[in-house]
């Protein structure tokens, strides 16, 4: 009996050793590119195009479109939609002012070679944190020293990570050979405030910047679990926050929501993010 057991064990070991390896992301050769995510991907800045008015505020020159021009895929699909949360990527329909949108994963082809994902901001609801730090000129809300707010930050970042992780896993399951590139959040808080564009004290701006660093680290962890690539937009946008009056990549708090969303990527930012992602694609 022991001899039979040994033979069976050896056979199983040999079979396992010669089993086909798990599929890994392929190098980009011009195959299908799919953009997924929320308003960071859809653009959020006004363009008189149907996609902008069909509920998702999808700008004609958002970073996925710019990236498609850079990469020239054989097939480009933009599923991004303003207001999306992680569940809207893979299992929950999204209600918009122009109707209900199916989960974005439905439009992802199995043979996708590159998938960009911008998600997490609405799951984290960073605006609820930032609004607690807004202040009048020369005042200081001292958010950085608020233990209750710090506890809330931890909770919100953990919640975001716990929601984004299964979404990325679902994307990986649908497109097993794709390069999944996740673009981080943040970038619009620099080293100092500039009332009224960024009505936050200098120390609290720096604290808020570190909050986005921590959120980015959480997104990086989720990305690693699906063999993806993380683009740290917050750290790599240093110096291009709305207080930079010459070359900002982000709108200020004064931005009119009907023209561009406050604290969202502008046209220069779309080009910058597209360039970051393009450099991250393996060819």
From TrEMBL:
Entry annotated with the keyword Hydrolase: yes
Q: What is its EC number?
A: 3.1.-.-
Signal peptide (UniProt feature, chain positions):
1-19
Q: Does the keyword Isomerase apply?
A: no
GO MF term list = hydrolase activity
Gene3D superfamilies found in the cross-reference section: SGNH hydrolase
Coiled-coil features, chain-numbered ranges:
none
Q: What class of enzyme is it?
A: hydrolase
Which of UniProt's keywords are assigned here?
Hydrolase, Signal
Question: Sorted alphabetically, which Pfam families does this protein's record hold?
Answer: Lipase_GDSL_2
User: Which InterPro entries does UniProt cross-reference here?
Assistant: SEST-like (IPR037460), SGNH_hydro (IPR013830), SGNH_hydro_sf (IPR036514)
Give the SGNH hydrolase-type esterase domain ranges.
35-269
Q: Which PANTHER family match?
A: LIPASE 2, SGNH HYDROLASE-TYPE ESTERASE DOMAIN-CONTAINING PROTEIN
Q: What is this protein identified as?
A: SGNH/GDSL hydrolase family protein
Originating organism:
Gordonia sesuvii
């Amino acid at each position: 009996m022991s001899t039979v057991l040994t033979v069976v064990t050896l056979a199983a070991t040999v079979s396992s050793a010669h089993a086909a390896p798990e599929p890994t992301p392929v190098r980009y050769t011009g195959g299908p590119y799919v953009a997924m995510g929320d308003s960071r991907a859809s653009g959020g800045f006004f363009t008189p195009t149907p996609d902008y008015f069909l509920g998702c505020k999808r700008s004609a020159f958002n970073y996925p479109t710019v990236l498609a021009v850079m990469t020239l895929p054989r097939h480009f699909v933009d599923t991004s939609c303003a207001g999306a949360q992680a569940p809207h990527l893979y299992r929950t329909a999204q209600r918009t002012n122009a109707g209900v949108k199916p989960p974005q994963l439905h439009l992802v082809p199995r043979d996708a070679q590159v998938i960009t994902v911008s998600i997490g901001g609405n799951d984290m609801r960073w605006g609820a944190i930032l609004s607690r730090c807004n202040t009048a000129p020369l005042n200081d809300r001292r958010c950085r020293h608020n233990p209750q707010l710090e506890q809330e930050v931890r909770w919100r970042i953990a919640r975001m990570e716990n929601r984004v992780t299964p979404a990325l896993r679902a994307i990986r399951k649908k497109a097993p050979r794709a390069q999944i590139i996740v673009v981080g959040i943040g970038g619009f808080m620099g080293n100092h405030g500039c009332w009224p564009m960024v009505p936050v004290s200098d120390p609290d701006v720096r604290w808020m910047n570190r909050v986005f660093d921590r959120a980015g680290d959480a997104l990086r962890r989720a990305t690693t679990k699906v063999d993806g690539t993380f683009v740290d937009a917050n750290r790599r946008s240093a110096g291009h926050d709305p207080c930079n009056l010459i070359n900002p990549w982000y709108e200020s708090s004064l931005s009119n929501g009907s023209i561009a969303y406050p604290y969202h990527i502008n046209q220069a930012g779309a080009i910058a993010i597209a360039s970051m992602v393009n450099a991250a694609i393996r060819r």
